[in-house]
Amino acid sequence: MATKLTQSVVDKIRHDQEAGAQVYDADVSGLRIVIGKKSSSYKLMGRINDGTDRYISFVIGRTDEVSLKSARERAKELRLTLRRGEDPRVPKNAIPSLSQVADSYFASRGQELSRRTLAWYQQKVEGPLSSLKKIPVDRIDRATVKALHEKITRKTGAYGANGAMRVLKLLINDAARTHDLPPNPVTRGVRMNQEKARDWAVGPDEMPLLWRQLDGLEDRVRRCCWLVMLLTGLRSGDARSMKWEHLDQDGVLTVPSPKGGEAKAFKLPLPKFLVQELGEVRDLTRPLESPFVFPSSTSKSGHIEQMCRTKGFPYAPHQMRHTYRTHAMEAGVDFQTVTLLLNHANPHVSFNYVTREHLLGHMREAQEKVGLRLMSFRSNNS
User: What angle (nearest 5°) sits at the alpha carbon of residue 25, between those of residues 24 and 30?
Assistant: First the structure.
């Protein structure tokens, strides 16, 4: 039977009741006072709403240390916790800061990412997101993120700001796998800047000029690196870091760590003309005894570190990829095959059933078609 407890009743209860007795509070269900030999304590008994129908008990404190009012308030808080299906006896994991989340993500996922992607993520955390590094991720709110996105946009432009927000969104989502977090503030608070696709492809009218400038380069090793990017669509980093051991006798190149890391490694047949050009480069660089196709005796990596616009060749490395992609379409190569050649992800479920190792012959035919089209502009130029 429950008792209408008052603070006066509580103060005398240990002397009025025998040890082992329990006095139930009429105001808060589950709250009781347990009488001991030397002291009495507030205790809450309740059922946790987690599907198990378990009853748990929780000691709130001694009656000579905790007032009845405080005990009732604490009991009500605990009852709400039980209704949420949480066990108040289990300590919650501390919510990590953004810096801790980033360190954990890079340690666990770093091997799955390419070095360039990993470095890009780290640059975003150490640069535009640095003001958030010490903040627990559950305290990064929409207003803060929205203001930061606007600030980065003013400072570095639309693309840089969007990139920083994508990294922040990724890291918070990763933390949410192991911690109870509020909805992602990037999703709810940021309206991404509109991004316009770069119209970078070199068109048919300009291709003869590109070939004249390319053939006019004095550095024959760099010229061949540009040629690889133009005739295969490879990204700059994949072209610059090519090793001779990655190129087999049939002219098939293995790209071991492209964008997306080792899990995205792929094989790519090279056009015959390009294989011949690479043979000339091999003869030219043989004295360096380098494992790299495009070696550099002055770089830490051992291969060419940068390919960039020059007065003699005013094109960007990624512009070669855009050009390859566009002329592949002009050459009549179907969308799915170009996707394979560029190692792009394909969202179509049927693509999961494709084993690209069995399509090297088909890819080689397509590669030759693209190469012939691109080379035709050089013929027109001669």
Answer: 75
Query: What is the identity of the amino acid at 183?
Result: P
Please, what is the Cα angle at 294 between 306 and 115, to 5 degrees? 55
User: May I ask the CATH architecture of the domain 2-83?
Assistant: 2-Layer Sandwich (3.30)
Exposed/middle/buried for 307, CB within 10 Å: 0-12, 13-18, 19+? buried
- Do residues 363 and 337 make contact, with C-beta atoms less than 8 angstroms apart? yes
| Residue the block writes with tokens 């004295």 | 287
User: Residue 84, Cβ neighbours under 10 Å: how many?
Assistant: 11
Residue 359 has a pLDDT of 86
Q: Treating both helix axes as pointing N-terminal to C-terminal, what angle do 335-342 and 317-330 enclose, rounded to 10 degrees?
A: 150
The residue to which tokens 């071991």 are assigned: 256
pTM above 0.90, yes or no: no
Q: 233-248: per-residue pLDDT in tens?
A: 999 999 999 999 999 9
Distance CA 59, CA 373 (A): 80
Mean pLDDT of 315-328: 96
Amino acid at site 73: E
CATH level 2 (architecture), domain 98-189: Orthogonal Bundle (1.10)
pLDDT at 356: 73
Q: What is the 8-class DSSP label of residue 157?
A: -
How far apart (Å, rounded) are the C-alpha atoms in residues 179 and 96? Answer: 9
Tell me the fold of 207-381.
hpI Integrase; Chain A (1.10.443)
Q: State the SS3 of 86-98.
A: CCCCCCCCCCCEH
| E-only strand ranges, 145-261 | 252-255
Closest CA to 378 of 272, 270, 273, 229: 273
Q: How far apart are the first and last CA of the chain?
A: 105
Reply yes or no on whether the pLDDT at 104 is more than 50: yes
Residue ranges per structural domain of the chain = 2-83, 98-189, 207-381
pLDDT of 382 over the 60 cut: no
57 phi, psi to nearest 5 deg = -120, 150
98-189 and 207-381: identical CATH topology: no
Query: Parallel, antiparallel, or unpaired: how do β-strands 2-3 and 22-25 relate?
Result: parallel
Helix (H/G/I), strand (E/B), else coil: 176? coil
Strands, E assignment, the chain: 2-3, 22-25, 31-35, 40-47, 55-62, 252-255, 266-269
Residue 136 near residue 96, CB atoms below 8 Å: yes
